[in-house]
Amino acid sequence: MSRRLCDMPLPDENGYFGEYGGSFIPEELQQVMDEITAAYLEIKNDPAFQEELQSLYRHYVGRPSALFHARNLSRKIGGAQLYLKREDLNHTGAHKINHCLGEALLAKRMGKKILIAETGAGQHGVALATAAALVGLQCHIYMGVVDIAKERPNVTRMQILGARVVPVTRGTQTLKDAVDAAFEAYLQDPVNQLYAIGSVVGPHPFPMMVRDFQQIVGQEARAQFLEMTGRLPDNLVACVGGGSNAIGLFTAFLNDEQVAIHGVEPSGRSLEDGQHAATLSLGKPGVMHGFRSYMLQDDQGQPMPVYSVASGLDYPGVGPQHSLLKDLKRVTYVTAGDRETIDAFFELSRVEGIIPALESCHAVAYALRLAAQLPPEQTILINLSGRGDKDLDFVMENYGKEYCQDI
Ligand SMILES: *Cc1c(COP(=O)(O)O)cnc(C)c1O
């Protein structure tokens, strides 16, 4: 039946995952996307390119990232055994470097001079600026001035890495306006620039390409888990913003029908009053930012304001492959809220000595809930997508008094 779709090569040649994905962009941009698609399909099957990328994963990023059996936490919960795929240990501290390196190498191959992107909290900007420095390309990062003021350390990192941080002063001066500004700049010179999208979103070929670059996460985790335990995990859990770390873990397991897969979206402050970013849980299919997927949109088709305590998750859309996996019921999409996310942040820090990114804490929070309902012989593999260094000040300012006695 429909599950068979997981066996077919996805997306189809027009970039569709079932009815989702595709490319809804102006004609001039379509030509550029077609060139990127052609160049990507070429390097995808080019052993020299793949060798170069694998070599960077190993010697630059520090792959394979560790798989860790969180015994203390498992014991404390008293249910299923929890395992962590440690993407937080990568160079630059998250999974984003996996696809930024791929995009940078592709740009170099295509003879581009400049990598261009928008950034909100600065995580994608830092990962891309890192890849650009290594590969030898210029890097222009568009960022709203409100975000620039809020995310000083990441702005400084990008500048030290040699990137140009372009302040965006229009509109709300945040991520949405930065996307518009970056796209306009891109259209002015698509010959010398490559727009490096930061997740499995946007027009074809980005949902496919970014997924392919992230697949390494699941490939490693599957082999590591088999070696460590002699079997496959019973459950996978990953947080879902645009969906790149989740699809990176899930892809290697999609045909293992005995593995239950869970994607965790942020229910933020509340699912009722709109202060969340639970796109798959509460959204509807629509078109935005050049592709078709579940979206949180108003009646005019405009993106709704979204919110999460983890800024890397507050996006009103989601990668098109996740929309298909939801409809097929191959992946179950659930939510975790701010409060349990902060609990999970301190829990993992104190019980295992690992300070996780707030995004990843959504996966941890849901996994803790799931583990408590399962017997100890069951297993849960969590994608720990990033480390919490970037969140320290925010967490202490807002929750320090509650969780730390000496403040
Ligand atoms: C950006 C980010 C995410 C969200 O992006 P996805 O594309 O959904 O993976 C999750 N975790 C961390 C640590 C991030 O930096």
State the secondary-structure class.
alpha/beta
Uncertain regions: pLDDT < 50 for 5+ in a row? Answer: none
**What is the global morphology?**
globular
Approximately how much beta-strand content do the residues carry?
Answer: 15-25%
Strand order of the largest sheet: 3-4-14-9-10-13
SSE pattern, N- to C-terminal? EEHHEHEHEHEHHEHEHHEHEHEEHEHHEH
Number of helices: 16
Bound molecules: pyridoxal-5'-phosphate
Radius of gyration: 20 Å
Just name the CATH architecture of the largest domain. 3-Layer(aba) Sandwich
CATH C-level class of the largest domain is Alpha Beta
Name the quaternary structure: single chain
Tally of domains = 2
CATH topology of the largest domain: Rossmann fold
Mean of residue pLDDT?
A: 95
What's the N-to-C terminus distance?
57 Å
Tell me what the structure shows.
By secondary structure, the chain is of the alpha/beta class. The chain has two domains: 23-57 and 96-211, Rossmann fold, CATH 3.40.50; 64-93 and 215-403, 3-Layer(aba) Sandwich (Rossmann fold), CATH 3.40.50. Helices cover 44% and strands 17% of the residues. It contains 16 helices and 14 strands. Helix 10 (216-229) crosses helix 11.
